[in-house]
Structure formats: structure tokens, C-alpha cells
Amino acid sequence: MARILYFSRDYSTHDHRFLSALGKTGHQVYYLHLETRGHTLEDRPVPAVVEQVHWAGGDRPARLQDGLRLIMDLKRVLRKIKPDLVHAGPIQTAAFLVALAGYKPLVSMSWGYDLLMDAQKSKSWAWATRYALQHSAAMVGDCQTVRQMAVSYGMPSERIVTFPWGVDLSHFSPGLEARLELPPGMRSRLGWGEEVFVLLSTRSWEPIYGVDILAEAFGLAARQHPELRLMMLGNGSLAARLRQIFMQGQVIDQVVFPGQVKQGDLPKYYRAADLYVSASHSDGTSISMLEALACGCPVLLSDIPGNLEWIMPGQQGWFFRDGNVQSLAEAMLEAVENRSVLLEMRRSARFLAEQRADWEKNFPELLKAYRLAGVN
Questions:
Q1: What is the Cα–Cα distance from 364 to 371, expressed in whole angstroms?
Q2: CATH number, position 203
Q3: Are residues 23 and 101 in the same domain?
Q4: How far, in Å, CA of 292 to CA of 286, rounded?
Q5: CB–CB of 85/117 below 8 Å?
Q6: What is the pLDDT of residues 261-303, one digit of tens each?
Q7: 292-326: pLDDT as tens digits
Q8: 302 is in which domain, residue-wise?
Q9: Spatial separation of the C-alpha atoms in residues 294 and 91, rounded to whole Å
Q10: How much is the pTM?
């Protein structure tokens, strides 16, 4: 049995899944998180089999001026726990701090945005990326696009383990009541008849996710097809801007805002939708995309590299040009006009999830990275 210290930025749904799975491996697992960013990312507690470590960080947003204090206390934590391996990410924050502390072996885990966006912010971010990867015994990423970026920053390809994290296919499923052919009762509860065509967004209301592009495109498309509806889950810094766009487009009455939805309730929203839409400007393997596919919901995605690794246009959904409002609006209209193909797309979406996005099958790939770092 090895002692594993899992170190992440904040406590998210993804952290809960990794910690739960690691807790079943027989290893002694410790959990450390860098910061709290002012909103709850996961409402379930840290798994009971995992020991949460209290230290100088974790209770507020991390700041550059906190760096020295955090490194010194991280060294204290490492001396106390004496882990056999530290599993840390994102690259320029948690993994970088471990590298600066001089600890080995380090398995860095990319969260997608750290390599696809943060590494390009400035020379200092690029340097931090290279430093963390140079001091990593192995790295974990969720798609080929992330792998290629890691290699470009100096990580040897043979030290990278690539696997899509996947989803719980028993939880994210079409559901017995949906039967793949019929929408569940949520439509009637919202007062929507069979004629409406429901779009779903589950991304945070932040610039990186292109939700403003989605809002503008919906306005264009909904004026041509009044039967269009949009379920806009979540919240974020663009809340006022999004409502302004919907108001100006005179489509606010065709949008519902369910707020922040718990993980346990998400499947019913995917099942109620005709089409999942993501206008994200950057993604590795998007977990929300995998959730939609697993629930048998076709997808409409920006044509960024991470998405292109997954979807065959016309089989599980469609693409539009990233950042292009007109292209997204046209794709929405194409989906409405071709709704007859959605049943087959739903089946194809679920089949793809079963083949490539099964968390239970994919998680053991992580342990290959541990073995590369010398821990069995």
C-alpha cells in the first residue's frame, strides 16, 4: 500500500470522482487543495476513506504573494505525510508548487485549460509550465491535443498517459422513462408542448465557455424558429450580460434559468433536451459533452481540437466555427430542420459514450502513470 497525496486547485466534482476511485485502490490517500474560489464546486463531502490535510492554503483564492508561504507549508506537509507519490494539477499551480518544493516523484495532471490556454498567457506562465513538467516523473492528460501541448513544453511522450476521464454510465444514461424516443415529463412541467425544440447549456457563465456567443446565436435562431427553447444551467460573471443579450434579442421568454444544478439532478436535464450546445473556446475532453452523450443527447459543439477528437458530424451531432455567432445560429437551425435524424443520433451518442467514456473502464489508466513514477 502506497501513500498518495492528491493535490488540486479546488474541490470539484472531478476531484470527488478521482478521490473516491483512488480510495478503493488500497492506497492510503491524502487530499490537499490550493484554494477556495468563493463558490461551491461540489456539494458532496470528501470521501470518508480519504484524509483531508489542513495547511496554510485552501481557505481563500490563492495569490502570487502567497507563494513563499505556501511552498514552506507544503514542505512541512510533505515531511509529515512522507507520501510515496504526489498527484498534482493543474500544471502551473498545484503541480508547479510541488516541483518548487523539490518533491519527487510527482505525477502532474493536466486539467486541459492549463496547457491549452494558461501556458500561453505570458513568458512566466510558459516557464512555470516547463518547470513543472521537467520535474514530473509522469503526466496525465485527457486527450491527444493536451498530449501534444505537453510534448511541446518538454514532457517526453513516453511519460504521458492519455485517457478521457469518462462519466458514470449508470448515472448518466438515457433513463427508462426517456426510452430514447420520448422526452421525459420535464417539458410538460415547463409548459412546453411536443412541438418545441429544446437546447441545453450546462457550462459556467464565463468568457472561456463562449456563453455570450451562444446567447447571441440563440437570439438569431429563435426569431426564425419561435419553437426553440433554451435551458441555461449554471451561473457566473457574465450573468448580467447574458440576460441583456436575451432581452435585446426579444427571446428572454424562450429561455429558462434553472441555476446551479446538483450532480444528481443533471441527467434529467440532458434527457429533456433535444440538443446539448457548447460554445467553449477551449476544452480537452469536455466532461459535460460526455455526460450529454451518455444520456443519449446529440451535441452541437465549437470546432476546437478537443471536440474534433470525439464527434463525427451527422452521427452524434454537429460542429460550428468557434466564436462565430452566425455559424452557431445556422447550425441550430439545421438541427431544428433535421430533427427527424435525432433518434438515430441519440443511439449513436450513447453508443459512443459506452465505447470510449466509461469511467469504470478508463480510471485504471491513471495507475499506469503511477507505475511510470515507480509506485505500484
A1: 11
A2: 3.40.50.2000
A3: yes
A4: 10
A5: no
A6: 988 899 999 999 999 999 999 999 999 999 999 999 999 999 9
A7: 999 999 999 999 999 999 999 999 999 999 999 99
A8: 186-356
A9: 29
A10: 0.91
